[in-house]
TrEMBL record:
Gene3D superfamilies for the chain: 1.20.5.4090
Protein name: Uncharacterized protein
Family from the record: Belongs to the LRRFIP family.
GO BP, sorted A to Z: regulation of DNA-templated transcription
Coiled-coil positions: 94-128
Amino acid sequence: MSSYPSSGRRRPITRTEAEERALDKISRESTSNTNGVSSSTNQTQEQLHDKVIELQDRVQQVMFLYSQLDNEKSTLLYEVDLLKDELEEKDASLNLSSRECRDLTSEVKALKRTIDALHATQQQLKSEISQRDQLIQVRFLPVPEQ
């Protein structure tokens, strides 16, 4: 066991009057600083509280705007999907119309060839009839009435 007092100090505390005055002065200054700090701390806390409320309001506004923008984005994406569907339908309709146009154009060309061939046949037949009529007239046979 040690012969020192239980506080762990080697020599006993002895204070002089000057030390007591200095300690009292320090204690008074710290108390006044604490009072000044506590009043400024209260003001700071109130300012911080007001700032927190202001920031919470701004966060609420931003969240509201964000939800509005998200809704608008969803609406626009839906409209884009509708327009894409409409474009696909119109593209399919255009392809079908183009195919029908090609088919009809081919059919018209074939009919024109047929008409040209029939005109040629008609001209040939008219020519043959004309030759027949001439032969009949040359042989003095009467021409039948048409």
